[in-house]
Design a protein that fits this description.
binds zinc ion; 3 domains; single chain; alpha+beta
Length: 209
């Protein structure tokens, strides 16, 4: 998958000045972070107006490899950059300067320590919901305060969130914004509906096993 800095590099080559690159980065972010397909064409046209070459470069890529709105909902993951390998590369930056055997031994030692620390962390873990998930949920719960859910029957709701409107089906755990389907955690719109039905949020969260 594409990293935003990599795209920025391409944009720098195709743009006339730095301020234009910054605007492009924002515009690219608008397309990349999209979760609703209906806004894709509009945001792409914004990008096209800013830089035709950057638009053409992006347009050639398969949309499901760089835009959340087109991601498969099967893996329950909305990560859109190659962060995992970038983190690992940074992690072994010093070791990479060494000779091959010393490099491998250093990386082995680093990984061993990391596994040990993670094991210790998990030994002290209490509860059924992992800390990162808990943070995401807390954020969604906060955003749910500005969502207004209107029931349509059989678990279907129309949710007003700021200027946007979404259809939510709590029985199939789906929201028109696609965030619920993408990561398996109820989005703010979904949480507003669950509140309306007085369904405890914990029942719909992935739990530690
Ligand atoms: Zn939603």
């Amino acid at each position: 998958m594409l990293s935003i800095d990599f795209v920025l590099g391409i944009c720098t080559k195709t743009s006339r000045c730095i301020s234009n690159v910054r605007t492009l980065k924002i515009s690219y972010g608008l397309v990349l972070d999209l979760v609703v397909k209906s806004q894709f064409a509009r945001n792409m046209s914004l990008l096209k107006d800013l830089d035709e070459k950057a638009f053409q470069w992006l347009d050639k890529m398969a949309q499901n490899t760089w835009c959340r709105a087109y991601f498969s909902t099967f893996p329950k993951c909305d990560v859109l950059v190659n962060n995992s390998c970038e983190v690992f590369n940074r992690y072994i930056l010093d070791a990479r300067e060494l000779l091959i055997l010393s490099m491998l031994q250093t990386i082995k030692g680093q990984l061993m320590t990391r596994h040990y620390n993670k094991q210790k962390e998990m030994d002290n873990f209490v509860g059924t919901i992992y800390p990162k998930i808990r943070k995401k949920v807390a954020k969604n719960v906060e955003f749910a305060n500005i969502c207004y859910a209107l029931p349509a029957g059989k678990g279907v709701f129309q949710v007003q969130s700021r200027d946007c409107q979404y259809i939510v089906d709590i029985c199939s755990k789906e929201c028109e914004c696609r965030r619920w389907q993408l990561i398996g955690i109820p989005c703010s719109n979904g949480i507003a509906c669950l509140r309306h039905e007085r369904i405890p949020l914990n029942l719909l969260l992935p739990v530690a096993t």
